[in-house]
Write a structure and sequence with these properties.
With 603 residues, the chain is an alpha+beta fold. The chain is 28% helix and 27% strand. The radius of gyration is 26 Å and the shape is globular.
Length: 603
């Protein structure tokens, strides 16, 4: 541990052109020294530290320049020799934030707002524990901008803000957002509970308007998490919410805050409200599942040690389940919307041919290579399925607990026992697979180890739909559009024919993906090709829907004129089953456990 704090100042006045300027004063001893840039970023579960965006690096001691050299193997390490009599070195560097440091792949700032993830602007001594390195951070904001962060400010002078000293762990875990258009919303639930606030920045003042029902839902969310987990592992909590179409969309969890970015009209547009309903609840739930309780393989001592993601189906999968559940219990989703989202999730995974060769656990182990892959052949490759399929697994676990205990216990009891504990400041309690199994058995004795190993470690041809079926529902397909899919299509400007022809089509006709084994695949179509015409008529979603409907009850194929790398060809698809859209349907005579599951806990 360093005897003194590292002082860090970040000049954010160039944020509108996505350039952050940082200066560090790092205590040092004469001789060889190696500084490292954070590589493995919590919440990203991979070596996503934006090293390629680090530029303008200069080092000096007592005003004299120092020569530094990047390690010839580890691109995140920098070697420097500290001169005799020097007690510190000064480092200046710039971070190019055109690709967001939170890992979303988009800009971190626009003309009117910014998102600062401190890992993008720090260096620290190699080998040090992040808990043992202390930073004293400060920032200079663009003129007139207001900010939100879980860090405690100690002094503000104009646009300069200084914060209390914190460990590197806390610093990286405490992002800052700021903007011209800012709103602070108190979400506290009353005496005895930590303060909760939502800090919102947007690209326009109009986008900050929050309907009374949404305000009530976010306050209810705070109450629902308290009722679910029974403890809070933070001193205060900040919902950092950025509304912009210009910066990188993401959600990143932190212990005392969450850094969530949604489209700029999310608070105003019903479709966007539906699509982003689970974002804030998901990241908030991570304060318990992911930050407080964390898989041992992800609880590393600094940001250079590799992470092991084999339990991400717990870390992210359970949180995916809780995100939608808490959204419904809080009023951000209706029960019908929840079921439509669940139906789309179940169908998408049931129509995932890649599950026949890649088990779910491998999607977690492969997060480093899967996260930023494009949509082409994603159904065959599989993506980060530990999120949505984790939701189905935990829904099944809940239904088994309810049946085993005759409705006396549920997954809520597991969450309270496993993620609750004592309220207090942030801490990390690692766990293993065996710890999860043991805790489940404390709630309801069952062969959980075999079930979970089967669900995560085996290949299968169909998604685990046992939770839906045990809860008194079944997955069905009709020609009625799915409400969640409709919103996705409208906002994303594409048309989804996954469960009929087996293809998704962008507005310009480009085939985003083609499901292996589907009618479209069997006809020879592939991702990247461009649909031009349907049965001799120019492509439009309505034209293809009409052709699918007209083909029902006939033997005539659907003829698609397709462009592939400047060559044109007509493909015949012998499909006659009509439009197919997923929904959940009640099973007559079975108990409706799903509706019981959705009942709010907070009164």
């Amino acid at each position: 541990m360093l005897a003194q704090s590292i002082r860090l100042h970040v000049d954010l006045t160039d944020a509108p052109r996505n350039l952050y300027h940082a200066k560090l004063n790092i205590p040092a001893k004469p001789g060889a020294m190696t500084l490292v840039f954070p590589k493995w970023i919590p919440g990203n579960h991979r070596p996503s530290g934006p090293i390629g965006a680090l530029t303008g690096i200069r080092m000096e001691a007592a005003g004299k320049p120092l020569a530094w050299q990047r390690d010839d193997v580890d691109m995140y390490a920098f070697h420097v020799t500290v001169p005799e009599a020097a007690h510190a070195i000064d480092v200046s560097l710039d971070a190019i934030t055109s690709s967001d440091s939170a890992g979303s792949g988009g800009p971190a700032a626009s003309s009117n707002l910014l998102d600062l993830n401190w890992n993008a602007v720090v260096l620290y001594p190699q080998g040090a524990d992040s808990d043992a390195v202390e930073f004293v951070p400060s920032v200079k904001l663009p003129a007139g901008w207001q900010f939100g962060t879980a860090l405690v400010s100690t002094r503000t002078s104009g646009d300069e803000v200084e914060f209390a000293a914190v460990s590197l762990t806390t610093l990286v875990d405490s992002p800052l957002i700021a903007g011209v258009h800012y709103r602070r919303i108190d979400l506290s639930t009353g005496a005895g509970s930590p303060a909760h606030e939502m800090d919102v920045v947007a690209d326009s003042e109009a986008d900050l308007a929050m309907k009374p029902e949404d305000l009530a839902a976010y306050r209810k969310l705070v109450a629902e998490t308290g009722a679910l987990f029974g403890a809070r592992h933070y001193r205060q909590y900040h919902f950092l919410y950025t509304l912009s179409d210009q910066v990188g969309e993401h959600g990143l969890e932190h212990h005392e805050s969450n850094d969530s970015v949604a489209s700029e009209r999310t608070l105003l547009d019903p479709d966007l409200r539906l699509l982003y309903a689970d974002l804030v609840p998901h990241e908030f739930a991570h304060s318990w599942n992911g930050k407080y309780r964390r898989p041992a393989g992800l609880a590393t001592r600094n940001y250079q040690e590799p992470m092991v993601g084999d339990l991400l189906w717990v870390y992210e999968g359970l949180t995916h389940y809780l995100g939608f559940l808490l959204a419904e219990r809080s009023g951000l989703l209706t029960a019908e919307q929840y079921r439509e989202v669940l139906a789309e999730t179940a169908a998408g995974l049931d129509y995932r041919p890649g599950r026949s060769w890649r088990p779910l656990e491998d999607t977690a182990r492969s997060v480093q290579i899967l996260r930023l892959m494009g949509p082409q052949w994603s159904n065959w490759r599989r993506g980060l399925d530990y999120y949505p399929e984790g939701e189905l697994i935990w829904l099944e676990v809940d239904s088994i607990i309810r049946q085993q205990t005759h409705g006396q216990r549920s997954l809520d009891d597991f969450c309270r026992r496993f993620h609750g504990g004592e309220s207090g400041p942030p801490m990390v309690v690692p766990y293993t697979f065996d710890d999860v199994v043991h805790a489940l058995n404390d709630v309801a004795p069952y062969d959980w180890a075999s079930l979970l190993r089967e669900r995560t470690g085996a290949t299968s041809t169909h998604a685990p739909l046992g939770g839906i079926e045990r809860d008194g529902w079944k997955l069905v397909y009709t020609d009625k559009p799915n409400a969640f899919t409709q919103a996705l299509e409208k906002v994303g400007e594409f048309a989804d024919f996954s469960y009929s022809l087996g293809v998704g089509v962008a507005k310009d006709g480009k085939l985003n993906d083609v499901l292996v084994g589907s009618p479209a695949y069997q006809s020879g179509l592939g991702p990247g090709m461009k649909l031009v015409a349907v049965n001799g008529r120019k492509w439009k979603p309505d034209v293809l829907h009409a052709a699918i409907k007209a083909a029902q009850g006939t033997t005539a194929p659907i003829e698609l004129l397709v462009e592939n790398a400047q060559f044109f060809q007509t493909y015949s698809i012998p499909y006659h089953e009509g439009d197919r859209n997923p929904h959940l349907e009640r099973v007559s005579g079975e108990s409706d456990l799903l509706s019981i599951l959705l009942t709010p806990l907070a009164r």
